[in-house]
Specification:
two-stranded antiparallel sheet; 10 helices; 20% strand; globular; binds nicotinamide-adenine-dinucleotide
Amino acid sequence: MKVGDRMSTVLVAGGAGFIGSHLIDLLLTEGNKVICADKLIMGKHNISHIAEGESFKFYDIELADQDSVDKIFLDNHIDIVYHMAANSDIQKGGKDPAIDFNDTLLTTRVLLEGMRKAEVKKLFFASTSAVYGEMLDVELTETTGGLMPVSYYGGAKLASEALISSYVSMCDMSAVIFRFPNVIGPRLTHGAVFDFIRKLRKNPAELEILGNGKQCKPYIYVFDLVEIIMKLTKVFSPGEAVYNISVTSPGTTVDHIAKIVAEELGLRNVKYNYTGGDRGWKGDVPRFSYDISKVLSTGWSPQYSSDDAVRQTVKDAIKEGM
Ligand SMILES: NC(=O)c1ccc[n+]([C@@H]2O[C@H](COP(=O)([O-])OP(=O)(O)OC[C@H]3O[C@@H](n4cnc5c(N)ncnc54)[C@H](O)[C@@H]3O)[C@@H](O)[C@H]2O)c1
């Protein structure tokens, strides 16, 4: 990503997390200078393999704090901001709305303000299918209207998207917004695949499944995701571009995920116990379906189906010693 005659300097907010750290690996491989800012909710292990120096700098900061963020923009000439920070523990956020307000929404506001003052014009934002709320039988396109999120997390992401839209218009910024589905792969720290491995390691005879197991969603492998993030942030067009991101095959059910995890762990005769109901927790959306023709028209195509992504992620977790 060349800006004039030099490589880009990018700020990855939330870069020590699962997806952000993979994005940083790719940004560095392509020769960019990376500034990572994170308060390390998940720890520092995802970026511990990267040496600090000329091409990588780390700031341990609260991204909802304006002074801390402004200092990064003052210290560094940033070309692009990748905003990957958010609360990823949806159930924890469900018990305390202040978590999503701070980590998912305020971080967006503060980063946008920092960008406005420093005149940084390019933003990538990690949004989510949760902005659509519960539209179970609609094929969701980027222009589907009447969005009514059913979780604080989804509300904070949709509010972030609205703020971004206003800054794009008022400050002549360019933004690329991806609405991710479930993302899985190496370094995973949450979600059904992670939980099932953890629970089955503890008790290989039984597995508690939240809901009725019929929840059905797409799962994208993290390397497929960071590839398309890089592709669509090499050139920014004026204004705002929103993309639904998913796999080309149908989603997979929670029951099927449990079966794949048990198979990969070499377990037979696992007894599955269901907590009941059509969803895992309040604020969960039991199923959704995306129209992804817009992102496919860029020439990108994901390598992994949902099932393949699940299977590969279990293999990755085993390799990581889980
Ligand atoms: N993983 C998924 O399935 C998924 C799905 C849809 C959208 N997303 C979005 O993608 C992005 C990355 O998700 P992830 O799975 O890598 O999550 P993650 O929890 O692994 O990473 C998020 C990082 O943000 C940091 N962070 C959060 N709030 C912060 C704050 N106030 N100040 C400083 N640092 C802060 C955390 O310390 C963490 O390192 C998030 O915005 C998430 O909402 C993820």
